[in-house]
Write a structure and sequence with these properties.
This protein is about 0% helix and about 45% strand. The protein is mainly beta.
Length: about 240
């Protein structure tokens, strides 16, 4: 969301734009009509799209009418599955080539550098920034954590079940961190000590359906699942 404008990324159709609360949608792909969008993030009035390997990372400064290719030079053709921004930088998680970072000011194809020191699993499905800490959800190796300034990744999720640490979604709410799992059980983890320990947050209402999206609106937490609909928690993930 940027102001009263809403953007939706589709793997078949690219970026769609609505300025009437989603009643109508306009396709806005500019010079990239066939883009397959895997992630979106807004920074002020700028919006970034992480795409399948066909288009890399695109930037629009005019609500999606025009897009500029800012893909890291030399980055292999990897899907950009997750994007995150803080006050200074943008981070991009790829599906096999780790994480790249660039300053927001002066971003271009040559402004990116790898951000992978210590990260042994470079299949990144989710990123979440909490202050000066960044969390990365990997496909098959749980959640990793690093400072946002200097990459020094360490595994936080040794307490996760080894066969259920395919982390598609991350969110922070107060002192809790949530990790949505898309393979095995439990489908949702919760940590209240910065990822040192993880406990099952999902209950029977999730019907063991994979969690693909989590968001905190400041009051409640919402989880989007693969087959059990959208679930809400009003007590920071204790019950849903």
């Amino acid at each position: 969301v940027i102001g009263t404008n809403i953007f939706a990324g589709a793997t078949n159709g690219g970026v769609y734009f609505s300025n009437d609360d989603g009643d109508t949608w306009i396709q806005r792909n500019g010079a990239f009509p066939d883009m397959e969008v895997r992630s979106l993030v807004a920074n002020g009035t700028d919006i970034y799209a992480g795409t399948q390997s066909d288009a890399g990372i695109l930037l629009s400064t005019d609500n999606g009418i025009n897009w500029t290719d800012v893909t890291p030079a030399g980055m292999p053709p990897s899907p950009v599955m997750s994007l995150a921004v803080d006050s200074n930088n943008i981070y991009a998680g790829t599906d096999g080539d780790g994480i790249f970072v660039s300053p927001l000011v002066g971003i271009s194809s040559t402004s990116w550098i790898p951000f992978n020191t210590g990260l042994t699993n470079q299949v990144i499905r989710s990123l979440k920034i909490d202050g000066t800490t960044i969390y990365a959800g990997t496909y098959g190796d749980g959640v990793w954590v690093s400072s946002t300034t200097i990459p020094n990744w360490s595994l936080t999720s040794s307490t996760m079940v080894g066969s259920s640490d395919y982390i598609q979604a991350l969110e922070v709410s107060d002192s809790a961190i949530f990790a949505g799992n898309i393979s095995g059980l439990p489908v949702l983890y919760r940590s209240i000590n910065n990822g040192v320990n993880w406990i099952q947050s999902s209950t029977s209402v999730f019907e063991d359906e994979a969690v693909y999206a989590i968001i905190n609106d400041g009051n409640n937490i919402y989880a989007g699942t693969e087959g059990a609909g959208i679930l809400m928690s009003t007590d920071n993930g204790i019950t849903w």
